[in-house]
């Protein structure tokens, strides 16, 4: 069964799920597992802003083996119904790598269990994401360690911000954004690093400011921001006084009629509060990142070219 990484919830489709999205993917047959336990607590989870991104599930428990690392009695969501947005996805399920404070029904996250059960040697994992045209390279998740061949220079560590006394998101302070050498003068912004999606979502005014510095950008009648498909602007996110460059092509979400839709768009509602952004893998794949669940820090370094 193939799983995509996500910083939030865990889910795999049950054999009893008959939604089109479930039928198109590998489903988990709990009857074949001698260690499976159905807890049965129901919950509903939305991965977007509409029903097509939602799923309904019950909590179950079984042993989990990921890349040779095994945890015992891992709780997870066994989906009974999935929205249509999952139909065309390549993955079968989702492996959550966030904090326990953001999990449903008090479930301990898989990596937290790996640390508690001493299945890994360190309380952090390293993440490298490849690009679609990287034919001889693949993304790499290193559980309990880092891969020093995937980045240049030193890892720089940033404290994770708590939300109402709990650590829920991989959220760190942003100094600013630089475009073509111009600092945009963002203040008090926090960034939630979200591997679950490609896009970056900001409050509307921040998106307007961002695209004002992108040559040839525009906004269509539906409110979406566009950029030239041959974009060459030099973009960098600044954390702790250190700039991390973004490949110009990572500002392109997909082609439109005469240009391309930007990967930076206004959020619907708020990410966490009025000062927070959700930054997807359009940025994250430009860095090697390390996530420590005991020190509550995130490490960043430019990826090795």
Automatic annotation (TrEMBL):
Disulfide bonds join 17-22. It comes from the Eukaryota. Residues 1-301 form the Peptidase A1 domain. GO terms for molecular function: aspartic-type endopeptidase activity. It holds the Pfam family Asp. GO terms for biological process: proteolysis. SUPFAM superfamilies: Acid proteases. InterPro entries: Aspartic_peptidase_A1, Pepsin-like_dom, PEPTIDASE_A1, Peptidase_aspartic_dom_sf. Gene3D superfamilies: Acid Proteases. Keywords: Disulfide bond. Belongs to the peptidase A1 family. This is 28250_t:CDS:1.
